From TrEMBL:
Name the UniProt record assigns to this protein: Uncharacterized protein
Organism: Streptomyces spectabilis
Length: 263
């Protein structure tokens, strides 16, 4: 039976017209499925369903999601990260940090912390990104200082001196939730290509129900970034907010808002 599948041009080009036509005809696509984003059942025979292609170094995994949860798209990940995404479907959910695209292999890695931030009487879902050490500009000599914030400002992040208002949206970037968990922060691909992971969890990051509910309500996530040693791992959200306020007052905080992809 034909399926109500959304196949983006990028996904079609990756899997080929023949495979795409088989999917649309229902030969290789499931009728009932569990949405890769919200985990609730879906039915591609009765409701719009997106095809989401996770592409690794050697293999690719085609997943299905409610069209209202995720658009049809390609998400490029490393082979190890792809296996982590596959394992997440079976329930594994811890996360070590992954280095960003601008970080050289011998340098620090990123730590990512999720929390809720109160701004103008409303709770906003936020991610705080802090490296474990100084981040050098690619090609810079060792010991040349910390260029983490200047690199982010060049990407469009804005310096903030207080958390009194919502930072502007950084278009082309997004925060990917899939299977109800945080998988990646995506940045625009080169030459208008598919988004690529700026930060990608080896295994997905568990977020609280309150954080996910706020993200679903606002369809946006705030991202704050600080130099190494500025905020640290705070055990409570009030302590996290205090550390962010201090970083902002010292000129050590950049921020943006990013659209939410997934639920």
């Amino acid at each position: 039976m034909p399926r109500m599948l959304d196949l983006s041009d990028e996904v079609r080009a990756e899997i080929g017209d023949e495979e795409a036509d088989r999917l649309l005809a229902g030969e290789n696509a499931p009728g009932a499925y569990d949405c890769t984003s919200c985990r609730t059942p879906g039915d591609s025979e009765r409701e719009r369903t997106s095809t989401v292609l996770f592409v690794g170094d050697e293999t690719a995994v085609l997943a299905f999601a409610h069209a209202s949860c995720l658009p049809s798209q390609i998400v490029e990940v490393s082979e190890e990260q792809l296996q982590g995404a596959v394992r997440s479907i079976t329930g594994e959910d811890t996360v070590p940090a992954q280095r960003p695209a601008d970080t050289a292999p011998e340098q620090a890695v990123l730590g990512v912390t999720s929390g809720l931030v109160l701004i103008e009487g409303e709770l906003h879902p936020a991610l705080v990104v802090e490296p474990t050490g100084p981040i050098a500009r690619p090609g810079a000599a060792p010991g040349g200082g910390d260029d983490f914030l200047p690199l982010l400002i060049e990407h469009g992040f804005m310096p903030v001196t207080s958390l009194a208002g919502v930072p502007p949206t950084l278009h082309g970037w997004s925060v990917l939730l899939a299977v109800g968990q945080l998988h990646a922060i995506l940045q625009p691909g080169t030459s208008g290509g598919s988004p690529v992971a700026w930060w990608q969890a080896h295994q997905p990051l568990q977020v609280t129900d309150g954080w996910r509910a706020a993200a679903n309500k606002l369809q946006s996530v705030l991202l704050y970034a600080t130099p190494s040693g500025t905020v640290g791992r705070q055990p409570r959200e009030d302590l996290l907010r205090g550390a962010l306020d201090r970083a902002a007052s010292r000129g050590q905080l950049v921020a943006c808002a990013m659209p939410l992809a997934g639920t």
